[in-house]
Amino acid sequence: MKKAVFIVAPETFRDEEYYVPRQILEDANVEVITASVKVGGLVGRFGYKTTSSLLISDINYNYFDAIVYIGGGGASVFFDNADALKLAVDFFNSKKITAAICIAGVILANAGILQNKKATVFIDGKDTLIKSGAHYTGNTLEVDGNIITANGPEAAESFGKAILNQLNIINMCEVEQ
Question: Which of 111, 133, 110 is nearest to 119 (CA)?
Answer without folding.
Answer: 133
